[in-house]
Every structure is written in C-alpha cells, then in structure tokens.
C-alpha cells in the first residue's frame, strides 16, 4: 500500500502512526511505501521510522497569484505526471491520502488508475486537497465528529504511539526528573511548534517576569528555532529565589513534557490537540490566526466544549491577560483535575489502529 502526503509534521506523523499500526496488525514494513514531497520533512522522518519513501516535485500554492504560485502549479503538475508512473510501478492495493500538497499527485493518480483511496484528515476543517478528493474516496477518517468531509467515519487523529505509551506508563515524577523540573511545583508547559510563535514566546517571557516571586510555579518554555537566538541573549529577569523558569530551543521528549506538566499554553494544531486530550493535559490554546479556514480554532472547539481548555485570540494575547485567566486555576488542584478528566473524555488514543483497520478493509488486505 501507499501512504501519500507530508510537507509538515502535522501530516507526516499521523501517517507514520498509521503505518506502525498496520505493522502491528501483521504487515511487513516493506509492504508500506510512503510517497511525499522533496520539500517536506517526510524525507527525513519516514526513513527514521523504518519505512521507505519516494519523493516527488510539489509545493503549496499561495492564494494570491504570483510567480511563486505559478512555479508551485508547475511543480505539482510535474509531481502528478511522475505519480502516474510511480503508482503503476508500485501497483498498490490501496492508497492513503494524508492531505496537503504532498498528497495531491499520488492521490489523483490513484483515482485515475482506479485504486481505492482512503483519506485521513488531521484537522477539524479539512484541507483543500481532502475537500477536493473526499467525494471520490472510499472512506474519510475523521478526527472530530463535525469534520466536513463526505463518507466519514470518526476515528480521531492518529498520534505517535510513543505518546500513547508515555502517558499510559510514565509517572509525572520520572518525567520531571528527565526534564530537570521540580517535583513540588505546578508546571506550566509552553510550546508552539518547531519554529515557535512570537506572540506566545513574548507572553511566556513576560509572564515569567510577572510571576518572578512565585515559589509554587514552574515554566518550561519551548521557544522554537525562530526566536531562540533572541531569547538566549535576552532571557526573562526572574532571579533565582522565585519562579523556576527553564527554556529550550526544541523539545525532543514531548511525551515526557506532556506527562510532566500540569497545564499547557500552546497553539491548537491537530497533533497538539489530540495529544493534549490523550495526556489529559488542561490547556490555554492560542489558535494560529492565519491558519487556512481557521482550522486551529475549530480544532480547539472540542476541548473547549468539554471544559478541558480555554481559548484566547492571538491578537489580545499578553501576559496580564494570561495571568488573570490562569492565576486562579493553577492554584486549584481540583479544577486542574476536573479539566484533566474532561480532556481524557474526548481522547481517541486508538485512532491509528482505527484508521489502519479502514485501510485494510478497503484495500481487501487481511491483517
């Protein structure tokens, strides 16, 4: 079978999670082939996970017409032509479309060659590629009950198996030891993807300074690559006798951070919201304002409705506002526990297995 897509970790990691679930059901890793874009991170992430990948031309198309968007159209057309040849050579029984520009060529080629197509969406509002191809797919695996795709089956968003394993088996004490966090404080974890987010980073730094005399709180701040040089040279002024503050450029041990923290301040990406639910981690989410179709706000809605999260607009994000909202929560163990239970009530830790079962069913493959 072929798993098509990538471009970002938000597409690639769910695909890898499905592939690992297929292996757990008896498939040989060599029976699973990824097809993605030469521009995306899948060319690194997929081989690291133990699977083969073919990369093709392709790139995202900007909404405004320009020379760059014209080049993107040309690259995607080249990718489609190469996909036709590749699909004929691989002869898959089923093709899984992860969405995004990297999935377009292989998925269209699958439909033209009359191969079963299974779509798995990550966001509450479907990508343009999945909206276009969803009507022709055998089934669409939905991350949320109201995701706008036809022929839908609610599965949840596949997340990394190591996250599921960590939150099931790791203790908060051991995770804090691993990350160098104190055991006797309420821990606020802050992150916003591998690049980070300027607004979130500034709010976290200012918040640390406002809380500089607090001896009951700790902040673990994952800054991201974009702002890291500035934050290294200009850290928050917190002293040594009050709040515990630690910043890192990137966190490779996100499963441990999900387990170690008591509360999160973060964006509302698809993988983030799914992992918050599985970890039972209460959160204040700041949806990315430029996300296509405002999908991050839609992603956050299920946790918000369950009482597991707060949502704040990026335009009004600042330390005083966060402080006013979180001060009464972070000192209330009962409310944190209630929000944690609410998060787990909408968790779907078996999503990867559920998608894998759909793939096997519609590919006519025994697992």
Order of helices and strands: EHEHEHEHEHEEHHEHEHEHEHEHEHHH
Spans where pLDDT lies below 50 across 5 or more residues = none
Examine the coordinates and then state which fold CATH places here, giving the name of the CATH topology of the largest domain.
Rossmann fold
Reported CATH architecture of the largest domain? 3-Layer(aba) Sandwich
Give the strand content. 5-15%
Number of beta-strand segments = 13
CATH top level of the largest domain?
Alpha Beta
Characterize this entry briefly.
This protein is of the alpha/beta class and 367 residues long. 46% of the residues lie in helices and 15% in strands.
What this model shows, in words?
There is one protein chain. The protein contains 15 helices and 13 strands. It is an alpha/beta fold and 367 residues long. It folds into two domains: 2-159 and 349-363, Rossmann fold (3-Layer(aba) Sandwich), CATH 3.40.50.2000; 162-345, Glycogen Phosphorylase B (Rossmann fold, 3-Layer(aba) Sandwich). Helix 1 packs across helix 15 (351-363) and helix 8 crosses helix 13. The longest helix is centred in the first third of the chain and has 24 residues, at 67-90. It has a seven-stranded parallel β-sheet with strand order 3-2-1-4-5-6-7, sandwiched between helices. A six-stranded parallel β-sheet has the order 10-9-8-11-12-13, with helices on both faces. It is 46% helix and 15% strand.
């Amino acid at each position: 079978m072929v798993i098509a897509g990538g471009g970002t970790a938000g597409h690639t990691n769910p695909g890898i999670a499905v592939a690992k679930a297929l292996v757990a059901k008896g498939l040989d890793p060599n029976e699973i082939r990824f097809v993605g874009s030469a521009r995306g991170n899948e060319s690194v992430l997929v081989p690291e996970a133990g699977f083969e990948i073919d990369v093709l031309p392709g790139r995202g198309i900007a909404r405004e017409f320009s020379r760059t968007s014209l080049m993107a159209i040309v690259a995607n057309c080249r990718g489609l032509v190469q996909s036709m040849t590749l699909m004929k050579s691989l002869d898959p029984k089923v093709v899984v479309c992860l969405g995004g520009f990297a999935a377009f060529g292989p998925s269209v080629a699958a439909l033209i060659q009359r191969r079963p197509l299974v779509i798995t969406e990550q966001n509450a509002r479907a990508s343009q590629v999945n909206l276009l191809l969803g009507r022709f797919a055998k089934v669409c695996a939905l991350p949320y009950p109201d995701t706008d795709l036809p022929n839908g089956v609610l599965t949840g968003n596949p997340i990394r198996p190591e996250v599921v394993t960590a939150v099931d088996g790791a203790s908060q004490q051991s995770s804090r030891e691993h990350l160098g966090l104190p055991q006797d404080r309420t821990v606020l974890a802050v992150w916003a993807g591998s690049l980070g987010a300027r607004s979130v980073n500034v709010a976290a730094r200012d918040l640390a300074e406002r809380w500089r005399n607090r001896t009951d709180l700790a902040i673990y701040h994952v800054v991201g690559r974009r702002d890291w040089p500035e934050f290294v040279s200009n850290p928050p002024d917190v002293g040594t006798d009050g709040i515990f503050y630690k910043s890192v450029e990137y966190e490779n041990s996100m499963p441990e951070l999900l387990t170690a923290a008591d509360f999160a301040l973060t964006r509302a990406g698809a993988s983030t919201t799914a992992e918050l639910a599985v970890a039972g981690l209460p959160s204040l989410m700041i949806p990315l304002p430029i996300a296509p179709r405002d999908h991050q706000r839609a992603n956050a809605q299920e946790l918000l409705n369950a009482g597991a999260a707060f949502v704040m607009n990026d335009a009004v994000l600042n330390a005083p506002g966060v402080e006013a909202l979180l001060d009464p929560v972070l000192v209330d163990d009962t409310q944190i526990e209630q929000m944690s239970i609410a998060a787990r009530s909408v968790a779907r830790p078996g999503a990867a297995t559920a998608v894998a079962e759909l793939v096997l069913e519609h590919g006519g493959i025994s697992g």
